[in-house]
C-alpha cells in the first residue's frame, strides 16, 4: 500500500492506494499502513502520487471531477451503505442532496439516518462527495442553517461546498 499526504486549508489529507486504485482518503491524514513486503509497488505509488496531484488541483479550484481508479471492496457489496455511496458518486460538483434524497437514490426512501451513517463511514472522502449531503432544510447560507455532520468538521464542509460554488 502506498500512502501520500496532501496539505489542505484544513490540515493534512491522507491517501492510501494499491496497485489497483485508491483504497482510502482520510480527512485526518491517517490512512491504512500495510508493511507487507512488496505492498508499496511502483503502480500503487504512481496512483497515490496522481491522487495527491488531483487533490491539489481540486483544492486550488482547478479540478471539478476526480479521474482515479478506485480499489474499494465496498463497491462489490450488496448493502445499503454500498448503494448509498455509489449513488453519492452521481451527485455532481456544485450540487447537493439531502440525506433523504440520498436514501431514495439508494433505493430506500425512508432510510435518511442510514444514509447519514453511510456518509460517516465513507472510506473515500471527497472523491465520494459526502460533503454534498445536507439535512432537510439545511444550507450554507448566512442564516447559519445546519450543514449536518462531517468528519472534517462543519467549517471544512462549508468550505468544500463554497469552492464548488454552492452558496444557498
Automatic annotation (TrEMBL):
Q: Does the keyword ATP-binding apply?
A: no
Q: Which UniProt keywords apply?
A: DNA damage, DNA repair, DNA-binding, Metal-binding, Methyltransferase, Phosphoprotein, Transferase, Zinc
Tell me the Gene Ontology biological-process terms attached to this UniProt entry: DNA repair; methylation
Q: Which organism is it from?
A: Corynebacterium lactis RW2-5
InterPro entries hit by this protein: MethylDNA_cys_MeTrfase_AS (IPR001497), MethylDNA_cys_MeTrfase_DNA-bd (IPR014048), MethylDNA_cys_MeTrfase_DNAb (IPR036217), MethylG_MeTrfase_N (IPR008332), MGMT_N_sf (IPR036631), WH-like_DNA-bd_sf (IPR036388)
E.C. designation(s): 2.1.1.63
The molecule here is called Methylated-DNA--protein-cysteine methyltransferase
Occurrences of domain Methylated-DNA-[protein]-cysteine S-methyltransferase DNA binding (ranges): 80-165
Tell me its cofactors. Zn(2+)
Q: Does the keyword DNA-binding apply?
A: yes
Q: Which top class of enzyme applies to this chain?
A: transferase
According to the entry, every stretch annotated as the Methylguanine DNA methyltransferase ribonuclease-like domain falls at 6-71
* Function noted in UniProt: Involved in the cellular defense against the biological effects of O6-methylguanine (O6-MeG) and O4-methylthymine (O4-MeT) in DNA. Repairs the methylated nucleobase in DNA by stoichiometrically transferring the methyl group to a cysteine residue in the enzyme. This is a suicide reaction: the enzyme is irreversibly inactivated.
What top-level branch of life does the organism fall under?
Bacteria
Amino acid at each position: 500500500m502506498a500512502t501520500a499526504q496532501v496539505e489542505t486549508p484544513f490540515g493534512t489529507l491522507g491517501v492510501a492506494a494499491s496497485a489497483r486504485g485508491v483504497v482510502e482518503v482520510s480527512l485526518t491524514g491517517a490512512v491504512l499502513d500495510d508493511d507487507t513486503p512488496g505492498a508499496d509497488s511502483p503502480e500503487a505509488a504512481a496512483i497515490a502520487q496522481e491522487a495527491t496531484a488531483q487533490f491539489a488541483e481540486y483544492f486550488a479550484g482547478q479540478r471539478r471531477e476526480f479521474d482515479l481508479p478506485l480499489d474499494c471492496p465496498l463497491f462489490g457489496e450488496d448493502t445499503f451503505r454500498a448503494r448509498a455511496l455509489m449513488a453519492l458518486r452521481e451527485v455532481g460538483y456544485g450540487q447537493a442532496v439531502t440525506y433523504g434524497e440520498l436514501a431514495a437514490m439508494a433505493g430506500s426512501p425512508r432510510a435518511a439516518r442510514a444514509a447519514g451513517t453511510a456518509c460517516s463511514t465513507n472510506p473515500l472522502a471527497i472523491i465520494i462527495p459526502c460533503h454534498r449531503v445536507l439535512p432537510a432544510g439545511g444550507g450554507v447560507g448566512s442564516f447559519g442553517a445546519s450543514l449536518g455532520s462531517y468528519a472534517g468538521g462543519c467549517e471544512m464542509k462549508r468550505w468544500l461546498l463554497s469552492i464548488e460554488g454552492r452558496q444557498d
